[in-house]
C-alpha cells in the first residue's frame, strides 16, 4: 500500500494552468509534477501566481519541459534569501559589587 500523498485543497491547479497557458510551458507535462508543486506550496506557502513564475523560471526553453531539479533550487534559493536567522540581541551583563 502506497503512503498517502499530501494534498492542498487551497491550491487551485485550474488557475495555475490558466496562468501558464499564455507561456511556452507544456501543460500536459505539468501533471507529472503535481505532487512536487503541492509539496512546495505546503512547505513555503506559495500561491498560484508565484508558483507560475517559479515554474516559468525553471522551464527549459528548448524543450518546454519543467526541470524539477532547477525548480526546487529556484524556490529554495528564493526563500533562503528571504529568511534571516533569528538571533537574540545580547546585552552586556555586569555585576555590581556591593560595598
Question: Main traits of this protein?
Answer:
49% helix, two-stranded antiparallel sheet, mainly alpha, 5 helices
List the helices and strands and how they pair.
Elements: H1 13-21, H2 27-30, H3 34-44, H4 48-57, E1 59-60, E2 65-66, H5 68-82
Antiparallel strand pairs: 1-2
Helix pairs in contact: 1-4
Provide the succession of SSEs.
HHHHEEH
User: Oligomeric form of this entry?
Assistant: single chain
Weakly predicted, low-confidence segments: 84-93
Q: Helix/strand-derived class?
A: mainly alpha
Number of helices: 5
Cα-to-Cα separation, first versus last residue: 75 Å
Overall residue-averaged pLDDT value:
81
Percent range of helical residues: 40-55%
Description of the structure:
This protein has 99 residues and is mostly helical. It has helices at 13-21, 27-30, 34-44, 48-57, 68-82, and strands at 59-60, 65-66. Strands 1-2 form a two-stranded antiparallel sheet. Strand 1 and strand 2 (65-66) form a beta hairpin. The longest helix has 15 residues, at 68-82.
Amino acid at each position: 500500500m502506497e503512503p498517502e500523498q499530501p494534498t492542498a485543497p487551497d491550491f487551485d491547479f485550474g488557475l495555475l494552468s490558466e496562468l501558464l497557458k499564455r507561456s511556452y510551458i507544456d501543460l500536459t507535462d505539468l501533471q507529472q509534477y503535481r505532487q512536487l508543486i503541492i509539496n512546495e506550496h505546503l512547505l513555503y506557502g506559495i500561491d498560484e501566481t508565484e508558483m507560475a513564475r517559479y515554474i516559468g523560471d525553471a522551464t527549459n526553453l528548448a524543450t518546454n519541459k519543467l526541470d524539477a531539479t532547477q525548480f526546487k533550487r529556484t524556490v529554495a534559493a528564493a526563500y533562503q534569501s528571504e529568511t534571516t536567522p533569528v538571533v537574540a540581541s545580547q546585552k552586556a551583563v555586569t555585576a555590581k559589587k556591593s560595598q
